[in-house]
Write a structure and sequence with these properties.
The longest helix is centred in the middle third of the chain and has 35 residues. This protein is mostly helical.
């Protein structure tokens, strides 16, 4: 192949890569080449440098020939189109080589923390109110409670609308970053932190379409069910229970409607992000694309059902043996399985819109990859702690945690006292502590480490989320401490808390710093995101040590020093 032909091929690949992100790809490429030429390079050198900046000097250690990587450019009736399961196997390879694909999941979970916190506090207030009534009064005042629910029915519709909006925001952040990452990986390029957050500029476009889509698949069915429930309550107040059977039928029909609409609206985020469609056209196009790739989308959902079923069965069977690994399974599904599945789904969409994808044949050992990143994370954690520029964020995190703990303490001795007395019972060891120490340590570790990882990326978009995570965790500590003496608190929380709490504060400090960079130092944000993720990973050994102490040392001290049973 001549040099001229080689440069022409590289130019075409560069243009094809930018077509995934821009409508005027040729104009973007020419502008970048011109910027190199203005600095004294020839056009050929500019093409070579631009190609290397995208795809790497050595093509990632393997050629793109038929023996090592397959390129599918699929026509509508192309017989060689790979199945979803084939794509899935190569997506696993891509994940092991591009572990930053897990970042969109962490961003999603950090934003959904707002929704979880909202539901948590609503439940706390509800339980607190019921606990303050006393068990003897709850049955006596059932009619009064039902009447109150009916009179406040409009509030349920407001809450439902708020849930739809929050869910849409969470999905918009997730899919904008996930599709952006997939477009880079499916183009055969290494995924960088900049490649992940590139799509965040499209969040509002996705949000508008997803609000409509979620209103169709969740809002409308839920509103019909809510109306039926309120109707059943009125019938119960009137002494009739006939509408209960109608309510059951309505719930069944709306469940079917939810499943069907979720299935056919699968590609709404993709049609908005990749094609640039508006909400209405995106919904129509999603339906058309799902019909076109019906078998692949069906396999996608069936595979999810199988994964969730295996996970639930495994957790249940081990639970019968007093071994709990539910948090471990949830962590694996969230951080590993989800990005691989959604990478595959997005590539199904690309193939069925006549686009090409690159199938990654080589892979890394997953355990070796985890070990490598934990080592790199420990180094980054040390650097984070010794850089003076991070101390304002550490102090901010510590100060916010102390304030929220004080607030939780005073709520515990006053307004939320019934709830506190219900969940905190001095003299009794939590039954969870009687599990196998090994499984208990794993449960605690993966729960706390997940919160730590979420905290480090919670500053994406706004510093409000790290503040919320700080408040919830500090508030809970304060609420619990309001029921215990200082000596009891030191025994119950001290042994593992001296490691766990500083680790959480460091993770939250990284989140605050990330939020600051997002608002005020946007150009440095991608690099800071990568550093903060490494900090979260580097905290794993500390969270593991704290979990082992909490599962072994703390119960023994509670038993022998406090005499609890």
């Amino acid at each position: 192949m001549s040099n001229a032909q080689s440069y022409a091929d590289k130019y075409e690949k560069i243009v094809e890569y930018y077509q995934r992100y821009y409508v005027n790809a040729v104009g973007i490429v020419e502008r970048k080449i011109r910027s190199y030429v203005e600095r004294g390079y020839t056009r050929e050198e500019a093409i070579e440098m631009l190609y290397t900046s995208i795809f790497g000097k050595f093509e990632y250690g393997y050629s793109r020939g038929a023996s090592s990587m397959y390129n599918y450019s699929v026509a509508p009736n192309y017989a060689g189109k790979p199945s979803f399961l084939t794509i899935l196997s190569y997506s696993y390879n891509a994940f092991t080589l591009n572990p930053l694909l897990a970042v969109p999941v962490l961003i999603r979970d950090s934003i959904s923390y707002f929704q979880s916190a909202y539901i948590f506090f609503v439940l706390v207030l509800l339980i607190n109110s019921l606990a303050s009534l006393g068990s003897s009064n709850i049955s006596d005042n059932l009619s009064l409670l039902l009447s109150l629910i009916e009179h406040l029915s409009y509030m349920f519709y407001v809450v439902l609308a708020l849930v739809v909006v929050i869910m849409s925001a969470v999905e918009a952040f997730y899919w904008s970053s996930m599709i952006s990452a997939t477009l880079r990986v499916s183009g055969g390029a290494w995924l960088t932190s900049k490649g992940v957050i590139h799509g965040l500029g499209r969040v509002m476009d996705l949000f508008k379409a997803l609000v409509i889509a979620n209103s169709v698949k969740i809002g409308v069915p839920a509103a019909i069910i809510l109306t039926s429930v309120l109707g059943a309550i009125r019938s119960m107040l009137g002494g009739s229970i006939a509408t209960i059977f109608i309510l059951i039928a309505v719930i069944g029909l709306m469940g079917i409607a939810y499943i069907a609409s979720s299935f056919f609206l699968t590609f709404v985020p993709h049609t908005v992000y990749v094609e640039g469609y508006g909400p209405t056209k995106a919904i129509r196009e999603s339906i058309r694309m799902v019909v076109r790739s019906f078998s692949d989308v069906l396999v996608y959902y069936l595979f999810w059902i199988v994964v969730q079923s295996i996970a639930a069965t495994t957790a249940y069977m081990l639970g019968l043996l007093n071994v709990s690994i539910s948090n471990l399974i949830a962590f694996i599904i969230s951080v590993i399985v989800t990005p691989i599945m959604d990478l595959s789904l997005t590539e199904v969409y690309l193939l069925n819109t006549n686009r090409s994808i690159s199938m990654w044949v080589k892979r890394r050992n997953l355990l070796g990859l985890i070990s490598k990143y934990i080592g790199a994370g420990i180094i980054e954690l040390k650097s984070f702690l010794f850089r003076l520029e991070n101390y304002p964020f550490i102090l901010l995190s510590l100060f916010a945690f102390i304030l929220s703990s004080i607030h939780g303490y005073f709520l515990g001795i006053d307004y939320l006292r019934p709830f506190r007395d219900l969940i905190v019972r001095p003299g009794r060891i939590n039954p969870i502590m009687y599990q196998s120490p090994f499984s208990l340590a794993l449960e605690i570790f993966f729960n706390n480490w997940k919160i730590g990882l979420i905290s480090t990326v919670s500053g994406v978009g706004t510093p409000i989320l790290p503040a919320l995570i700080t408040y919830v965790n500090g508030w809970l500590l304060g609420l619990v401490s309001s029921k215990l003496t200082l000596y009891e608190l030191l025994v119950v929380i001290g042994p593992h808390g001296v490691i766990e709490l500083p680790s959480l504060i460091i993770a939250l400090a990284a989140g605050f710093k990330l939020g600051f960079y997002y608002l005020f130092r946007r150009k440095l944000f991608p690099e800071e995101l990568k550093r903060c993720i490494k900090v979260g990973i580097g905290l794993a050994p500390l969270f593991l040590l704290a979990a082992v102490i909490e599962a072994t040392v703390t119960p023994a001290l509670i038993k022998y020093l406090l005499g609890w049973s």
